[in-house]
UniProtKB/TrEMBL annotation, chain A:
InterPro entries: Sec-1-like_dom1, Sec1-like, Sec1-like_dom2, Sec1-like_sf, VPS33_dom3b. Pfam families: Sec1. It comes from Aplysia californica (California sea hare). Belongs to the STXBP/unc-18/SEC1 family. This is Vacuolar protein sorting-associated protein 33B. The gene is LOC101855285. Signal peptide: none annotated.
Automatic annotation (TrEMBL), chain B:
This is Vacuolar protein sorting-associated protein 16 homolog. Pfam families: Vps16_C, Vps16_N. The gene is LOC101855205. Plays a role in vesicle-mediated protein trafficking to lysosomal compartments including the endocytic membrane transport and autophagic pathways. Believed to act as a core component of the putative HOPS and CORVET endosomal tethering complexes. Residues 3-410 form the Vps16 N-terminal domain. SUPFAM superfamilies: WD40 repeat-like. It comes from Aplysia californica.
Length: 593, 830
């Protein structure tokens, strides 16, 4: 199963769309579509298909210059429609005549048409859709690039994206065959599964094709809210935290490169050095890099031993070029490491991590509280502080009313009153809750938010390795290495359990605690009894893990670890790659909107 | 004899064979009717023309009847509209009736009215003289000639667009005859004015054309264009029959019929001969002046086909065609063609005669040609018996061939089976193989569906293994659509019958059937049928159309497609009288509710507030107010709104939020006053930031006031003050602060604050006063590594020393070396 086929398909569809408008046209993009489009097609591809200029759609733009044909490639959002309507009205007001086409990604929504109608521009536009749903970021990574899924579904109960996810799954299975075994973890996952089934029913083609993926896991983000609150420790996750990775592309500024130029780098498994270090614990990245540097040096010095002109020619033509390239990459990664270290040293990283770990272990609650207060006093960035507060609440299964009041008051005083709304949202999401005082229920109806079941789950699944067992961070034997041995992501742990057991039997209690486990198994693995070593279908050893509401780079690393351990190919699909920063940033109320 | 009914016409032969004995025999006299028949074996429409018989003009409206080609009555109705000038059929077998006033009425073959359109205002005003219905390159066209001798034309009845043709110069009386010629994707009219011909086109151009006629031929009285629009035949007043090319450039012959009478019909038989009809006499004239004469028993109607001519009579329906070349090759007496030999061989073989072997030997090398000829000839026969003998011959010949590809034979067998089925008089489509090739199988199946022969068409599809999506599913959907129109059937039963038949058929759209039912006013049935529709996106809009709002909403929610939910919600909102009613309706559905709130949130925040107010959800209401307060310009307005919010929080007993809001209101009012006093803006600043700014501005009086009022904890306040002072570089104030008695923070904070501003000198001043246990750390912070190491040694703390070592990376080399060298001292001390 080659994910590139998906890319090819998307490319053809895009080409069709572009060619359907003859001659040259301008393209106007939603800001968050530029990167995905770049990954799928690239500028030169667009130019080849007659795209003249490319604009970014921004709030407050009243009009745009350009030629007589314009294509908008946008998500179907109400505000976007209003911007476009603004453009059209202003431009027509100025007497400019243009053919407008709005291409909706991934599909057109009736509500958008309604808005175009009420704005009175429906007559000037033609509508189309471009089903850009999941697209490959790497050989084992698919993304829907919808970062607002988390907020929209878990906070606002908007199920629109569930439909998108289900449809992306249906389309994926059209290409790669229907996946026989499905497991869902969490409520939203179950809903998605049901939606997917009904979509299969509604579609005509029932021909059963050969399938390339044996198992599908759909996982709700709210099953495990702890992982995204933990400090990233793997190289990839830290790169994202420090520089920000978008669609596997990273931009290093002069602090990394050392000269005045910025460097853009594609971070995929194609980069040999990167694929070696991306999942490593940060403590052991530098050692690898320096070893690699020595290797390169050795190859370099080979040139002194070259005898003949022919050898020399060969060396210059091939090895030297590769060497130069690798050297540059190496230098960049080393530079990046330095910047990460510097950033970490600047803040009080050690105490922070220590607090985080003891929170996860559930020890030293008093000290932890003090540290959080200190963070507030020292005016750490609000996300950082909020992260610890959330961790405290998640691991303690809610704050005591006194602590809650104290901490939030300080937080509001420090970072602004608008966060009153933030705290309400966090409460509803179950990220930051108050322990219910026995008996005195809230009169205003059902209590908001969900309770975390951290302690029970921890006990059942042994998420925090036992004290005293030192985790080997260099050649890890347990996936908790991704958080320096402090914690194992619940969803990854569950997937590991299910993959080894091949059944949900025995996980009922855990299922109840994490919002529901469900399985639909169409194809049993060959019975373990009888002839031993009966080869299981290799396709059954391919699993797709779909995260609703995003997953972190740390979790991806953990899954890659499981994949190596169990010899199962795991493909990760996600609505977006998130970090504590992006997740909390989305939820935090901004003043002066 | 196979050639018994062949008549020679020059080099070729023509044959006339009977297709049907008409079922209308004895009931219908064609002489009393206007006849319109549809090509490709289509139906026949008759309009009883009383003017032909009645001596006095009656006002009784005529009756229109439609028969199939075998004379079986399909439907009948009394015409109750204007005077019909011309009747004809479209390519999709719709009956087109062109009225005197230029209005065209379209019916299906069961005389169900479908639509109407007009041929334009002028036609309506001045009335029309005549109309022609013709096959255009887009479908079926209609041309009308008005009483003012102008011609208007449409090329496609499905999308009528009226075009006026150029005028014939000097035409001031009705032309003797006119016709439409289609060439180069354009329809032009050929108009005969006396002995002259004019070709007028859509671009306003006319062209005078000259047929090469003998001198005394007289005026042109009749024109006929061949089926392929390439040839033209015309008659003159003095009985001359001219045959030539349609552009009149070529003349094939001029035949003198010596009849002074204008023929009733002048048509082409295929593209090879012209046929003129005078009452009961049919004259076939070939391009080389050869002719055949047929005498009929009664008056007949002639209909041009692609490969022949249908002769519709009172008792029989006959087909006149040129004997196809391949048939001639096989059956012509004395033919030595391989096909003929094979046919003979097969016949002998049936008789168990050894001659068979001889014949086969004779054509050994050309056996493949022979087989192909026999197969093709079978296709040209109407009688199944003849088909069978020819196919048997082909099959026999095939045995002697080793690697003959069987497709040709199999295909022919299949086609003939289908053809024989549709030719059966109960169906009545007398198609020839050539016509079927041109018409194509999907169209034939469509025509069967049009005739409501669903069973037959499904069987044909299954026999030909046509994919369900194009074949069976589609037909069954048509069947269901037809079924729902049958008003007499019980709805419950009907819904069950339809669902039973269609449920396991993939690709049938129940919504389409339901909308069909709705169109015929059967709402209950439509609702029942819609229930079977698995695609909510099809189901929901129709439910809305039927006014089933609640069901639509439930279905939309169940589908999980929020777009559908929005569709329903917005529809309902626009429909409902008051917003309150609307909200009452959706409030029981949480998904609908939250979606609508999302919608409002993006449209208008105030609306959301109202919704929550109605819902009695004070917490959310307060929340919205808080969010909205930030959109307001003036601080006082904000404070007012927040006071409202506070009341909401009080109402839902959220004292914490209420208190916070109250504090914020107070802060806002302070900020406003400060703004008035100082002229600086304090908007959007938190308490902390306000304090910081005030400290920076040196406004310590206000700082104290705020600090007290908001009960800022000592420690935090100190930290804030220290860093604020350091930030603005107020070092003296900072130092003063550090000397206060019993500070709640350690001096390390001062060091940190100074270092944060990169002021090492200031920082060092505090280091000396730091408590001994923190000194090492602070010395490291200000970069005095050696001193730090020394202090560590003094403290005899290995831990501290290690700490210094771990931070050495930031020190310069020399110092680092020194410090490393000091480890020995530590050991020594211990």
């Amino acid at each position: 199963m080659d994910l590139q086929e998906l890319s090819k398909l998307l490319k053809t569809q895009l080409a069709h769309l572009l060619v359907s408008i003859p001659e040259s046209k301008d393209l106007v993009l939603d800001a968050d579509l530029t990167k995905p489009l770049d990954r799928v097609a690239g500028i030169s591809f667009l130019k080849e298909h007659g795209v003249d200029k490319i604009f970014k759609l921004e709030a407050g733009q009243k009009a745009l210059p350009g030629c007589g044909q314009r294509v908008y490639l946008v998500h179907p959002k109400m505000t976007t429609m209003k911007y476009i309507a603004d453009h059209i009205k202003t431009e027509r007001g100025k007497g400019e005549r243009r053919a407008y086409k709005i291409v909706f990604v991934p599909r057109r929504l009736h509500i958008c048409e309604k808005i175009l109608e009420s704005e009175g521009v429906m007559g000037y536009v033609t509508l189309d859709e471009f089903p850009l749903e999941l697209f490959p970021l790497d050989t084992d990574l698919l993304s829907l690039e919808t970062p607002d899924f988390f907020k929209s579904f878990y906070l606002e109960n908007d199920t629109t994206y569930l439909h998108t996810v289900a449809s992306s799954l249906v389309n994926l299975q059209r290409l790669f065959g229907k996946i026989p075994n499905v497991y869902t973890i969490g409520k939203g996952a179950k809903m998605t599964y049901e939606l997917m089934q009904s979509m299969f029913e509604a579609h005509v083609d029932r021909k059963e094709s050969k399938f390339h993926v044996g198992q599908l896991f759909i996982v709700d983000r709210d099953v495990d809210l702890i992982s995204p609150m933990c400090s990233a420790m793997t190289y990839e996750a830290l790169l994202d935290e420090t520089f920000g990775i978008e669609c596997c592309m990273i931009n290093f500024d002069s602090s990394v490169t050392g000269d005045n130029k910025d460097t853009k780098l594609l971070l995929t498994s194609q980069d040999e050095i990167y694929s070696q270090i991306r999942d490593r614990h940060f403590a052991h990245v530098f050692s690898y890099l320096s070893a690699k540097a020595k290797d390169l040096q050795a190859i370099y010095s080979k040139k002194n031993n070259l005898k003949t002109v022919g050898d020399m020619k060969e060396y210059v033509a091939n090895e030297l070029r590769v060497l130069k390239h690798q050297q540059k990459l190496l230098a960049t990664h080393i530079g990046a490491c330095e910047v990460i270290m510097k950033t970490k040293n600047k803040s009080d990283f050690e105490s922070f991590i220590r607090t985080e770990h003891s929170l996860l272990e559930g020890t030293d609650t008093k000290e932890n509280l003090n540290y959080i207060e200190e963070c507030l006093q020292k005016q750490f960035s609000p996300t950082l502080t909020l992260r610890l507060m959330c961790l405290l609440s998640l691991t303690q299964e809610g704050l005591s009313a006194r602590d809650y009041k104290n901490l939030t008051t300080q937080f509001l005083h420090s970072h602004g009153f608008e966060h009153l709304v933030t705290f309400l949202s966090l409460k509803r999401l179950g990220l930051l809750t108050v322990q219910e005082v026995g008996g005195v229920g809230n009169r205003a109806g059902p209590s908001l938010g969900k309770k975390s079941n951290y302690r029970m789950l921890n006990r059942r699944l042994a998420l925090v390795p036992k004290q005293g067992e030192e985790t080997d961070l260099k050649t890890p034997t347990d996936m908790s290495y991704i958080f320096s041995g402090a914690y194992t992501p619940i969803s990854c742990k569950l997937i590991e359990q299910i993959l080894t057991r091949d059944t949900l039997v025995g996980l009922e209690e855990v299922g109840r605690l994490c919002g529901g486990l469900f399985s639909d198994i169409k194809q049993k693995k060959q019975p373990a009894s009888g002839r031993s070593g009966a080869p299981t279908d290799p396709v059954m050893k391919v699993a797709l893990v779909y995260f609703l509401g995003g997953c972190t780079y740390s979790e991806i690393s953990a899954l890659r670890f499981i994949s190596r351990q169990l010899g199962v190919r795991i493909i990760v699909a996600t609505t977006a790659i998130v970090s504590s920063q992006s997740l909390l940033g989305d939820i935090m109320e901004k003043s002066g909107r | 004899m196979a050639t018994a009914d062949w008549n020679p016409l020059g080099e070729v032969y023509y044959r006339k064979c009977e297709l049907y004995t008409m079922e209308w025999s004895g009931l219908v006299d064609l002489a009393k009717h206007t006849v319109a028949a549809s090509s490709y074996g289509g139906p026949i429409a008759l309009m009883k023309d009383d003017s032909k018989t009645a001596r006095v003009t009656t006002t009784i409206k005529p009756v229109i009847s439609v028969y199939n080609a075998a004379g079986k009555l399909l439907s009948q109705m009394r015409w109750n509209s204007g005077t019909v000038v011309t009747m004809g059929w479209s390519a999709t077998e719709e009956l087109l009736c062109v009225q005197e006033d230029g209005v065209v009425l379209v019916y299906d073959m069961f005389l169900t009215f479908k639509k109407t359109f007009s041929m334009g205002q002028e036609a309506k005003d001045v009335k029309i003289l005549d109309a022609k219905i013709f096959a255009s390159f887009q479908g079926t066209g209609i041309a009308v000639m008005t009483t003012s001798f102008r011609i208007f034309l449409i090329s496609n009845v499905d999308s009528p667009r009226i075009v006026r043709l150029a005028e014939v110069p000097g035409l001031n009386e009705a032309p003797n005859c006119w016709t439409i010629v289609v060439s180069d994707r354009q329809a032009r009219a050929l108009v005969a004015k006396g002995g002259e011909l004019y070709l007028v086109d859509q671009g306003g151009q006319f062209q005078q054309q000259q047929a090469e006629l003998s001198e005394n031929a007289g005026d042109i009285t009749e024109l006929a264009v061949s089926f392929n629009n390439k040839y033209l035949a015309l008659c003159t007043k003095n009985g001359a029959l001219w045959i030539g090319s349609a552009d009149l450039q070529k003349k094939y012959c001029e035949f003198n019929t010596s009849s002074p009478m204008k023929p009733q019909q002048l048509v082409w038989c295929g593209n090879g001969a012209v046929v003129a009809l005078w009452d009961k006499l049919i004259l076939v004239v070939g391009p080389d002046k050869d002719w055949i004469k047929y005498n009929m028993d009664c008056s007949v109607h002639l209909l041009q086909e692609e490969d022949g001519l249908r002769i519709i009579g009172n008792d029989t329906h006959e087909f006149l065609q040129k004997v196809p070349a391949v048939t001639e090759q096989i059956f012509k007496i004395g033919s030595m063609e391989p096909g003929a030999m094979l046919y003979e061989a097969s016949k002998e073989f049936q008789k168990r005669n050894q001659k068979a072997d001889e014949y086969i030997r004779m054509i050994k090398d050309k056996l493949e040609v022979a087989v192909n000829q026999c197969i093709q000839a079978a296709g040209q026969e109407v009688e199944p018996g003849k088909q069978r003998t020819l196919l048997r011959a082909a099959s026999f010949g095939k045995c002697f061939l080793t690697d003959y590809r069987p497709e040709l034979f199999v295909n022919m067998c299949q086609m003939l089976r289908v053809l024989n089925q549709v030719r059966h008089h109960s169906v009545g489509i007398p198609l020839t193989y050539t016509q079927l090739e041109h018409l194509s199988m999907p169209v034939l199946i469509d025509r069967l569906v049009l005739r409501k022969l669903f069973g037959l068409s499904v069987r044909i599809c299954q026999y030909l293994k046509i994919p369900d999506a194009e074949g069976r599913s589609r037909i069954l959907a048509h069947w269901a659509c037809f079924k729902v129109q049958q008003k007499h059937e019980d709805e419950e039963k009907l819904a069950r019958a339809i669902s039973q038949k269609l449920l396991d058929v993939p690709g049938v759209s129940f919504s389409e059937i339901a909308s069909q039912a709705l169109e015929h006013g059967r709402k209950q049935l439509a609702v029942k049928l819609l229930d079977y529709e698995p695609r909510a996106s099809e189901q929901v809009p129709l439910l809305l159309k039927m006014g089933q709002d609640q069901t639509a909403l439930t279905k939309a929610i169940d589908s999980g497609d929020t777009d559908l939910v929005y569709t329903v919600l917005l529809h309902l909102r626009d429909k409902m009288a008051s917003a309150g009613d609307f909200f009452m309706m959706i409030r029981t559905m949480p998904i609908a509710c939250s979606l609508y709130i999302q919608y409002c949130r993006q449209q208008n925040l105030k609306l959301v507030e109202d919704l929550y107010y109605q819902e009695d959800n004070s917490l959310e209401e307060g929340n919205c107010k808080v969010i909205r307060s930030y959109t307001l310009e003036h601080l006082e307005e904000r404070a007012k709104l927040l006071e409202d919010a506070m009341n909401c929080f009080h109402r839902c007993k959220n004292e914490f939020a209420a208190k916070q809001t109250e504090e914020q209101v107070r802060l806002l009012r302070h900020q406003r006053r400060l703004e008035d006093d100082t002229g600086n803006s304090y908007a959007d600043l938190s308490l902390q930031q306000t304090l910081r700014k005030l400290i920076g501005d040196g406004n310590h009086g206000h700082v104290e006031k705020l600090r007290k009022e908001f009960k800022v904890p000592d420690k935090r306040f100190w930290m804030l003050k220290i860093s604020a002072l350091a930030e603005v570089g107020d070092w003296s104030e900072l130092e003063k602060l550090s000397k206060t008695k019993k500070p709640p923070v350690t001096l390390e904070v001062f060091v940190d604050a100074c270092m944060k501003q990169y002021n090492r000198t200031e920082a060092v001043r505090y280091v000396s006063r730091v408590q001994p246990e923190q000194r090492v750390k602070c010395l490291v912070k200000v970069g005095q590594f050696r001193e730090a190491a020394e202090a560590a040694i003094e403290n005899k703390s290995e831990e501290d020393f290690d700490y210094v070592l771990s931070r050495l990376g930031l020190a310069d080399r020399q110092v680092a070396e020194t410090v490393r060298g000091m480890r020995g001292q530590l050991m020594a001390r211990r």
